[in-house]
Amino acid sequence: MTLTPFPLDAAQLERGLFDDRRRRNREYLMSLREDALLQNHYLEAGIGSQDWHLQPSKDSSAARGLERHWGWETPGAQLRGHFLGHWMSAAAREIAVTGDAALRAKLDIVLDGLERCQRENGGEWVWAIPPSFLRRLEDGLAVWAPQYNMHKTLMGLVDVHRDLGDERALVMATQASQALLRWVRRFDDEAFQRILEVETGGMLEVWADLLEATGDPVYEELLDRYYRRSLFEGLLDGRDVLTNMHANTTIPEALGAARAYEVTGETRWRRIVEAYWDWAVTRRGTFCTGGQTSGEIWTPPFAFAARRGDKTQEHCAVYNMIRLADVLLRWTGDLTYADYIERNLYNGILAQQDPRTGMVAYFLPLAAGERKQWGTPTEDFWCCHGTLVQAHTRHAGLSFYSGDDGTVTIAQFIAARGRLMIGDEQVDVRVTPIDDAAYVGPDSNAGPAGDLHRPSALRIRLTVSSATPRRIRVRIPEWCSAAPMTSGALPSEIEGGALVMAHDGGGERRIDIALPWELRTVPIPDEPDTVAFLEGPVVLAGLVDHEIALRGETASAQDLLRADDERHWSQWRSRYRTVGQPRSIRFRPLHEVTDEQYAVYFPITRNR
């Protein structure tokens, strides 16, 4: 079964954890001034007053109302201008999903500025870096990722066109691509392969997007030129070409291959994507969080213990691997990809966003006693600032899918609602996580109302309205410890890792679903006596300042931890503490940890 996500304006979040994080992200998008977002594009085009940098200290600029962006966006930094593309992509998706008029007005001002820069540069060059950076790349001289940088602006323009139907953005992207086309044509194949070995960025994906949008055969030419033989043919030959390679330079290439397959139908592209996933995940394993990198580098297969440090799990890699999992979920309908997405959403995307400020942690430390290091709104602009703002506009789109046979699939248990036109019929779907403290379920086998202790199941209420009979498919997550329990009017059966219900077509139907979980241990692959603790998909962090060994059995999470501070007002909370240990340690969800020192892995010393 192939799956299609609901249209962008047909799936929205409802109030809850993920919507809270989305709103925090939207505040950040709105807080950034248009002239600051465009500052480096203006400088490259020679536009605007230069007064602000005659007194360049941040304090004096801010005092004079000339707030500017610093860090990787500092004028003179070689990656200057990269963030604007991410901002445009995020703004376009947020506007398409929510209809945000204020953000649309801000985006229009940014597009006006970019259009002016392109015009002042002669009608093609739209970037904040000079053409000389490409010359340095071709000559083998030191330069920081010009194609990566240029791709971000093209990506932003393409996403504005695709998500919002903005033709002006498409025109700017196609005009800008002419300069790159002429550059590429200067090299024979061998010379260009040597350039691709240095860096490619996400160019392959944007060429596929532009081929789909325009039908212009020059983009087929560019797809073929950006086929990096050493990576793609190594994957197709069944070789591990990823270990110790920079991860987030190759994941965008796999995403580009995915788009190339979707646009051209050529099966070689699909085989590359499938081989990439096989080597990146299936044959490599993951940390307990779902992440796989350390210092931005792919770990060796199932060898993670020595790679725990303060620079584990780059946010960009987490975001892009979620995108790749979504591709394979859509192609195959296999819900194990949705399990991977869920683990990384909680223990990557949420865990690497500060719930207080919305800022990003570039890395998620997995060495004991480390802290998350949060970025700032305007003084860092790491690559992960860019994937941060994009990631939190996409949660609703990961929730609902329609199958090629008319089946509706619920892939994530996020508070959300969706509506889908199937032929002339509108199908409405709503997922509502049930607050256990207020749960009332008449004649329910999902658990009695008024439990005295925090129930050990995730409960959701699924409401579906359909005028005609329809199958509803709900993912049974990999962490589910027993068969799902249901109450309601819809008959159900388990099929292919999903709870499949038959809607009779009689209008609105409601069913309550309980997905049981057990507190469990997950060992690090190459040290089976070193474990993390998980509740459902959520990794629990112990609040410690150094590594501490626990006494007990590795498989006995229930004997090592007990519920702690579990109830606040009307809410149950995921809090634990150790029992029977020389030192008491408190645990909380990793995505709730902000400035505390913590550990997620604990050696277990067996009782004698």
UniProtKB/TrEMBL annotation:
Q: Name one GO biological process term.
A: carbohydrate metabolic process
Q: Where does the Non-reducing end beta-L-arabinofuranosidase-like GH127 catalytic domain start and stop, copy by copy?
A: 13-395
Span-the-membrane segments of this chain are: none
Q: Which InterPro entries match?
A: 6-hairpin_glycosidase_sf (IPR008928), Beta-AFase-like_GH127_cat (IPR012878)
Q: Name one Pfam family in it.
A: Beta-AFase-like_GH127_cat
Question: Cross-referenced PANTHER family, in alphabetical order?
Answer: PROLINE-TRNA LIGASE (DUF1680)
**Name of the protein this chain belongs to:** DUF1680 family protein
